[in-house]
Specification:
By secondary structure, the protein is of the alpha/beta class. It is built from 9 helices and 10 strands.
Length: about 230
């Protein structure tokens, strides 16, 4: 069943077109990768999908409902969460307070998800009274992901979740997300430049170039086709 449907979406900064006619889908229980070099419009698209950047043209539907032009708050109420590039935690609040904010956003709390997060990210509970801004980069990313998942989203958008994260944390995050996504059956749009992580996590992928989708395929087919042409720097 289609959870996210993006149809011919355009976004601009002032007069400059950034995203031009993008269409993509994410099904319930599916992880879809959005790949591309820096500056091709991936983050701008993500911001448009969650209501943070106005959509100039096109349509976005969540669970069949048109959310085009809705404020970020109203899109969030539809069960959409984003873990933005840079993580977006509250650095002056404690780890526990950050997690509590995620739980408060949940309309249907899932005790099993909290239990899994406790098992998979134990460092967060060990450091629950520590200010979030004092955590390492990998720990902050775990916190941002845990906070989003505690809110019981239908659709989760992860924008560069491995950026600035040490390899030991990347492996831990990958293993945790596999279990959590299987448990929660949510849809995930994964924006990522770590290709090994993206190909390991996603079933399908889209490649962006100059604000447009230039290729889409199962991730098993994307590595050979896309890497040399669109994803090398």
């Amino acid at each position: 069943m289609t959870l996210l449907a993006v149809d011919n979406v355009h976004l601009r900064y002032g007069p400059s077109p950034i995203v031009q006619g993008v269409s993509l889908t994410v099904d319930v229980g599916e992880v879809v990768a959005l790949l591309g070099r820096n500056g091709v419009g991936k983050t701008t698209l993500a911001r448009g999908l969650v209501g943070l950047t106005p959509i100039a043209q096109g349509q976005v539907r969540i669970d069949g409902a048109d959310v085009t032009g809705m404020t970020a708050h109203r899109v969030s109420n539809r069960g959409v969460r984003i873990v933005p590039q840079g993580r977006g935690i509250f650095p002056r609040l404690t780890v526990a307070e950050n997690l509590r904010i995620g739980a408060l956003l949940s309309q249907e709390p899932n005790p099993r998800v909290r239990e899994l997060l406790h098992e998979l990210f134990p460092i967060l509970w060990e450091r629950r009274q520590q200010r979030a801004g004092t955590l390492s980069g990998g720990e902050q990313q775990m916190l941002a992901i845990a906070r989003a998942l505690l809110s019981a989203p239908k659709l989760l958008i992860l924008d560069e979740p491995t950026e600035g994260v040490a390899p030991v944390f990347i492996d831990r995050i990958e293993d945790a997300l596999r279990l959590l996504f299987a448990e929660m059956r949510l849809g995930v749009l994964l924006i990522e430049q770590n290709l090994d992580f993206a190909f390991a996590m996603a079933q399908r992928g889209y490649v962006m170039e100059k604000g447009q989708i230039v290729l889409q395929a199962p991730t098993a087919d994307l590595r050979d086709v896309a890497v040399e042409r669109f994803l090398t720097f």
